[in-house]
Design goal:
This protein has two domains: about 5-55, no CATH class; about 80-225, Nuclear Transport Factor 2, Chain: A, CATH 3.10.450.240. The chain has helices spanning about 10-25, 30-55, 80-90, 95-115, 130-145, and strands at about 145-165, 170-185, 190-195, 200-210, 220-225. Strands 1, 2, 3, 4 and 5 form a five-stranded antiparallel beta sheet that branches. The chain starts with 7 loop residues before the first helix and ends with a strand. With about 220 residues, the chain is of the alpha+beta class.
Amino acid sequence: MQVRREWIGPAVGLAIGAVLSLLVHQQIGIGYEGIVLGAAGTAAATWVLLQRRAKHRPPAPVAVGPRTRAEPPPVPPTDLDNGVWDIRRTDRGFDVSRFAGYAGMTFRDVQSAGVAGDAAGLRQRVTPAMYVELQARHDRLRSSGRSVRVAAVDVSAVVTEAWQESDRDYVTAYVAGSMLRHTIEDATGKIVDGSLTKPAAVEAFLTFTRPAGLNFWMLSLIEGE
């Protein structure tokens, strides 16, 4: 059986000390060398044991000053925090603030595309289902003989939800602000809805998706526009 090195010193010293004690008690004379050897063994054993005790001694408690006010409890992570961490497992550079800027830009581009009737210009930035919806929206307006005019779109966005499901990333952003928007009759140019000068309040939720990882975000849903 292998013996730990850290016990060799104490074992040897204690064994020598025991032999010396036995010789003394049996009144067997020993020379000067035996006395020195026994003393050295005992000293070695004592030193190693003290070293082990010092090594394994728990650290002294840190002095804590008096608490002048109650410390707030730690804030648990929100669902948004957990969702962002999930997305960052496959995209470490995902940035919530930068994504919010992208969501606001997408909202403005969707409004401009609706005015121009150019949903095709967004085809690479929206899901196939979203593209069909935008195109259908424009076709309904055109078939009714009306058009929408938009100007001065002033919005900001904030990310409200993020999650990962079935190897896909999802992020929802809340977009709010104002814009000038009105609807006219194509035949007469008469304004039938909205105003040329009075901004209308804007509130919408935009949801984006992509395959998990370093892939391009695509708009998949607009709610409350």
